[in-house]
Design a protein that fits this description.
Length: 377
Amino acid sequence: MRVAIDVSVLERTPPTGVEKALLQLLRGLADADADHEYLLVAPRRPPALPPEPDARFRFHALGGRPRRGWRERLAAAFARRQGVDLWHSPVQAIPFLLDRPRVATMHEISWLETRGVGDEGPLWKRRAVAWAVARAADLVVCVSRRTRLNFLALHPAAGPKTVVVPHGVDHRLVGAEPDPIRLEQDLGLPAGRRYFLVVGRALKRKGLPHAIRAFRAFLDRTGAEIDLVLAGPRNRRLEQARSLARRLGLAERVRTPGYVPEPLLPVLYAGAAALLVPSESEGFGLPLLEGMAAGTPVIAHRASSLPEVAGDAALLIDFQDPAAAAAAMERAIGPERSRLVAAGRARAAAFPEDLPARRLLELWPLVVAGGGWEVPE
């Protein structure tokens, strides 16, 4: 089978959630013993796309000017020339004029769960794309049950062609060890200081102000010598979080090292006293499992998909209540730490890195054949 995979999302740098999930899928497909050909397509080679691992993978630049609308202008002819059997998209964007089976991926529908998410693109456009995918895609892959339920709340008729395929955890995080000297050298984090950690691109729904207020309440309760690290690309939301920290007297205690390269993430997770996940809305919440795999206790907001992904391996609280969050932070670094570490590692092990690839390799032939996949309850 010849599968075209849209890799244009990797043009966005630095890679974070969606981009990391695609890179993980490509690694899983490369390791799988499947006799498929993978045609990686984008207007030009994305900077984050690694070299093709073997002869089954080939990159094809579907260039042309303008680049806007490249899927509709070029995908159909390309698919006919190359004998493509199926088009897989790691996001919602699919070529609507393509006469081959199409798979789209739904990561989250944040506007149903929180307000003010315009920093992720125009709401009208996101609604329109979801509407089009619900009608045109042959299969819609949702990364969690919560995302599937949100999608079907908008488009109930799409139910029979939706499935849940969760993310997996990068194997490099399993058994990670702290290395404070390396973190000091590469990220400027003082080697002698403990820290709570938040990881991810700063967006409105990520709840950074909740983490900062909880940290202030924790320090007021304990007076502990510990910092808060907000790791992620620098943007306007992160600057707003820094301003809040200054107003709360935390200018010297809240650290923002910027984007952390993938090779450093295991060390950063493993060295944290606890990982905080204060997001108001998450389609999946991959950092939660990454922290667990690295042996870090996790405290997560009791909302959206986070309880589904965490199971009973995290402290689930209301991050909008600073006192409750501060109490959970005390628990995570106290006697409950060893239990949380063990439970987290076991939970992360249920999401191996190759899980998405294995599931898609089962589903793709069924899509080409015209149906037959199992729809979750």
